[in-house]
Write a structure and sequence with these properties.
The protein has two domains: 201 residues, Spore Coat Polysaccharide Biosynthesis Protein SpsA, Chain A (Alpha-Beta Complex), CATH 3.90.550.10; 58 residues. Helices cover 38% and strands 18% of the residues. The protein is built from nine helices and eleven strands.
């Protein structure tokens, strides 16, 4: 079943009120990110709609800190927050949004590079759909392909089973047999309402973020964006995907072991299922789901660690990486 396009009206139509001032604060949470952090922050500062970039430095190398401090000295719109230690992504986002004095806030991954015009394109989407809770754009890999997770259905025990075992192939057009991730489905050609987006690029009215209570700090890393989308869905607000604007999400730049990332992802997934599905599913079922999540982690631990070591040996610091123009 194809997602529902959103009628944003003709380009020259008078936007429906209320229309907010086109100004946003970009919040970036960084931990051992590497040189791409400078590219990410620098690209964000080039957008005229960006009034402030708040960098929550959960821990970076001395070299990266020095480069960031030099950039902050040259452009006072960059605010660097340190001293809190590695508090995780959710708490880092909440710390950053406290510095937002603009109508909009943009949560941006530290390895995500904004393309020219993308912020203004998102402003226009909000102008034409003022009740939207969040907006994202096409998130691309370095090769220009659409990245997994940028648009997806909400994570439920059933959608995870469909994705894991590709049950969608049994009944591809049935609404109850839709995949979790939608990046391999037919590309969208108009602004469309989706159920869930990635925290790599997530813009929303600052008041909406605060009304939702911000990110749930029970999640240290991963799934916090899914949790926020679930709360938006429960509030009955739309989330929009804009296909004609894009960002490049580099990925693989962090010095953190992928096993550590997968561990936090597994812990967060179990918390998410307990939080949102305890009324519908018996505790026994939720425990079985948790056991399956960690069994999968154990099965993948050695391969993903060895692959990470091999990649580090092969690519070094990632100096050969080339971003699209």
């Amino acid at each position: 079943m194809r997602p529902r396009p959103v009628d944003t009206g003709p380009a020259d139509a008078t936007p429906r009120s209320p229309v907010r001032v086109h100004a946003c604060t970009v919040v970036v949470v960084s931990y051992r990110t590497g040189p791409v952090l400078l590219e990410s922050v620098g690209a964000a500062l080039k957008h005229d709609g960006v009034k402030r970039v708040v960098l929550i430095d959960n821990g970076n190398s001395a070299e990266t800190r020095a480069a960031i401090d030099a950039l902050a000295e040259a452009d006072h719109r960059l605010i660097v927050v340190r001293g809190q230690g590695n508090v995780g992504f959710s708490k880092g986002c909440n710390l950053g949004v406290r510095h937002a004095k603009t109508p909009y806030v943009l949560l941006l991954n530290p390895d995500c590079i904004l393309r020219p015009g993308v912020v203004n394109r998102v402003f226009s989407a909000f102008d034409n759909t003022p009740n939207a809770a969040m907006v994202t754009v096409r998130i691309e890999n370095l090769d220009g392909s659409e990245q997994r997770g940028g648009r997806r259905n909400l994570m439920t025990p059933w959608t995870c089973l469909v994705e894991l075992f590709r049950l969608d192939k049994l009944m591809p057009n049935h609404p109850h047999f839709q995949r979790l991730n939608l990046n391999e489905t037919e590309p969208l050609d108009s602004i469309t309402a989706v159920q869930c987006i990635s925290g790599a690029f997530m813009m929303m009215p600052t008041e909406t973020y605060n009304d939702l209570g911000g990110m749930d700090e029970d999640y240290f890393l991963h799934v916090e964006d899914v949790d926020l989308c679930m709360r938006v869905a429960k509030a009955g607000r739309p989330i929009l995907y804009v296909p004609d604007a894009a960002v490049t999400h580099v990925k693989g730049t962090s010095r953190v072991s992928p096993f550590t990332v997968e561990w936090h992802k597994s812990v967060s997934a179990t918390k998410y299922f307990r939080k949102h599905f305890r009324p519908q599913y018996p505790d026994l079922i939720l425990r079985i789901i948790s056991m399956a999540i960690f069994a999968r982690l154990a099965y993948r631990a050695v391969p993903i660690t060895l692959a990470w070591i091999a990649e580090r040996l092969r690519s070094g610091s990632g100096a050969n990486r080339r971003l699209p123009d």
